[in-house]
Design a protein that fits this description.
This protein is about 45% helix and about 20% strand. The protein has a five-stranded mixed β-barrel with strand order 1-2-3-5-4. A five-stranded parallel β-sheet has the order 7-6-8-9-10, sandwiched between helices. Strands 11-12-13 form a three-stranded antiparallel β-sheet, with no helix packed on it. The chain contains 14 helices and 13 strands. The chain is an alpha/beta fold. The protein has three domains: about 110 residues, Nucleic acid-binding proteins (OB fold (Dihydrolipoamide Acetyltransferase, E2P)), CATH 2.40.50.140; about 140 residues, Rossmann fold (3-Layer(aba) Sandwich); about 50 residues, no CATH class. It catalyses: Exonucleolytic cleavage in either 5'- to 3'- or 3'- to 5'-direction to yield nucleoside 5'-phosphates. Belongs to the XseA family. Its EC number is 3.1.11.6.
Length: about 425
């Protein structure tokens, strides 16, 4: 096999030595010369829009990816919003970024092409699970105020667990943390996460809170938290679940299914446990308020007791008895006077009635010189014809009675005949 030997090697000379900057400059010149302007189609990922106005993103397809940047001047002219998963066509120049030794596409023009495959799959799954009610806000459970046992499903070597434990240790030391290690990206990670969540629900003593978390990454890195087994495991978990996947801009289906979504692993720790300093401060405030309340109640009770002690019943306790006695004596005098008046009225009524009876009494007539004659049956004799010769009669006088026998009867009727 023939091999071409460089002229400098054949001549026994040393090869030229380039600096990194020189090599990068050669590559930069070559790329920019070979690709003055290119059109590239791909799916947007890792979209970032800082306050500077520039836009940073990654264009990818099934086999490769390339970093891209859109400077502020071009970005300000966009007439549509960019988002992760969006399929676009870009025209731009290749540029070598010397400080990092990487190349990127400087986008001069961009047009939407459609929704990327991953984004489309995500939307379909989200619609399916939403229709089943897995994201229903009415099913969200509140987190316990003071959890005693916390289970974390995450990678034991990632930054997420370190951030979580650091914040947790700083805020609250009254909870035990159990980490169930799983992979959080790549093939098979979704099955491990779903199994870990189901395992956490069966632990005894039962955990108070479950946290599913991992750090930031691309859409592909976080994809396992969008897979159906993980989402269903979170929705069916009997323990309140906090999902803290990625950064603030990352929203996964696990976030939607969880009871609480945290923007970062650190915020998950803040949501999971209270601040020990805040609890201590609150307890101090309660103690002060309770002490003040007790003092106020004691002062009020003391004032009431003093007011009671100054009342007449306690200063001169027998005065009430004396007053009652005087009142009773008054009532006694009034009762006696009323009885005397009533007696006089009754006596007057008796005298009047007696006078009327005496005026109507036959005895009063007798007292004026008259007498009453009755037969032995008690009937008053009014006519001579009421008796016969031989009948016994009784004569009532004012001072006694006489019994006599009829010897003869001489009536006015016989005289008339």
């Amino acid at each position: 096999m023939d091999v071409d030997v460089p002229s400098w090697e054949a001549a026994g000379e040393k090869p030229p030595v380039l600096t990194v900057a020189q090599l990068t400059a050669l590559i930069k010149g070559t790329l920019e010369t070979a690709f003055p302007a290119v059109w590239v189609s791909g799916e947007i990922s890792n979209l970032a829009q800082p306050r500077s106005g520039h836009i940073y993103l990654t264009l990818k397809d099934d086999a490769a990816q390339i970093r891209a940047v859109m400077w502020k001047g071009t970005a300000s002219k966009l007439n549509f919003d960019l988002e992760d998963g969006q399929q676009v066509i870009c025209r731009g120049d290749l540029d070598v970024y010397a400080p990092r030794g990487s190349y990127q596409l400087v986008i001069r023009q961009i047009e939407p092409q459609g929704v990327g495959a991953l984004q489309l799959a995500l939307q379909k799954l989200q619609q399916k699970l939403a229709a089943e009610g897995l994201f229903d806000p009415g099913l969200k459970r509140p987190l316990p105020r003071f959890p005693r046992r916390i289970v974390v499903v995450t990678s034991p070597t990632g930054a997420a667990i370190r951030d979580f434990l650091e914040v947790l240790r700083r805020r609250w030391r009254g909870a035990d943390v159990l980490v169930i290690p799983t992979r959080v990206q790549g093939a098979g990670a979704a099955a491990e996460i779903a199994a870990a969540i189901k395992k956490a629900a069966k632990l005894r003593p039962r955990a108070d809170v479950l946290v599913a978390t991992r750090g930031g990454g691309s859409m592909e890195d976080l994809w396992c938290f969008n897979e159906e087994p993980v989402v269903r495991a979170i929705a069916e978990c009997e323990i309140p679940v906090i999902s803290a996947v990625g950064h603030e801009i990352d929203v996964t289906l696990s976030d939607l299914a969880a009871d609480v979504r945290a923007l970062t692993p650190s915020e998950a720790a803040e949501l999971c446990v209270p601040s020990q300093s805040e609890v201590s401060e609150a307890l101090d405030n309660y103690r002060v308020r309770l002490s003040q309340s007790l003092r106020q109640r004691a002062q009020m009770a003391r004032r009431r007791l003093d007011a009671l002690a100054e009342r007449r019943a306690f200063i001169r306790p027998f005065s009430l008895v004396h007053d009652a006695q005087r009142l009773l004596d008054g009532w006694d005098e009034r009762l006696l006077a009323a009885m005397r008046r009533q007696l006089q009225v009754n006596q007057q009524r008796v005298r009047q009635t007696t006078a009327r009876l005496e005026a109507l009494s036959p005895l009063a007539v007798l007292a004026r010189g008259y007498s009453v004659t009755r037969n032995l049956d008690g009937g008053v004799l009014k006519k001579a014809e009421d008796v016969a010769v031989g009948d016994e009669i009784e004569t009532i006088l004012p001072s006694g009675r006489l019994t006599s026998r009829v010897e003869s009867v001489d009536s006015e009727q016989k005289k008339a005949e």
